[in-house]
Design a protein that fits this description.
The radius of gyration is 23 Å and the shape is elongated. The strands form four sheets. The chain has a four-stranded mixed β-sheet. A three-stranded antiparallel β-sheet has the order 1-3-2. Strands 10-12-11 form a three-stranded mixed β-sheet, covered by helices on one side. Helix 5 packs antiparallel against helix 6, helix 6 packs across helix 10 and helix 10 runs antiparallel to helix 11. The protein starts with 14 loop residues before the first helix and ends in an 8-residue tail after the last strand. By secondary structure, it is of the alpha+beta class.
Amino acid sequence: MEHIKIMTENKNFDWNEFLHNRMAVGQYSFTVNELTDEFHLTEKVIFQALNRLIKKRAIAKIRQGFYVVLTPDSVKSGILSIYLYIDDLMKSLGKPYYLGLLGAAALHGAAHQAPMANYIITFNPVPRNIINEKMKLYFIGKKELLAEGIVQKKGQAGYFNVSSPELTAFDLLDQIRRFGLNHITTVLQELHEVMKGVALKRIAILNNTANIQRLGYILENFCENQKLAAVLYNIIEQKKISYLPLSPVQKRVGKHDNKWKIIINTEIDPDL
């Protein structure tokens, strides 16, 4: 790392050494509170130095009070991979979480198209979204997080939480209005290959019937995965379920799929 000379009121504090030591132990983020508590620096000294470090592209600000150290290969873009700091960010907010939706699908191999944004699932109330020219980080709130569907991925900075392939599938169907059925089906056509029947059943029985019907219909007709579809059908077969539209944003007009009780009110045209 290039030596960074920043004159502050505290001349004994070496900012270059601080940033180097963070990366040396696999920590790529820090908070203003850490600096004040651990090094007894005043806010005036801290913000004077941080502003200059940002200008020198040594660090980047993610949100108020939370910063990341830029690695040599991230200096040009000015932003760090979310996998290097997401766990620390959510701990600083005191929020349980998991990386979900398109980002999770990509981590599980469904990377037909690189996601343009990251989605963090957490409890309500959610933090404010972080959106600028360098990053798009959306927070989506839930009343509860299903522990059965959260797995850990190991990254360069340690472990971070991700939704399992099965939970990812159900979460995507919760977000039809955001992503659209075409995009969701495209993702599922790759994601189903790593989904497991036992895990799918555990998540499905904790989910709503509408999602089970829609996912079963897509798995059977667009993924041609009869085994996973059968897992879902066994759950709803003995239930009294009503017909529901394939797309919740279109009129309830179309042919009826009598097995899944789906009103086919739109044509699905996946990209694959």
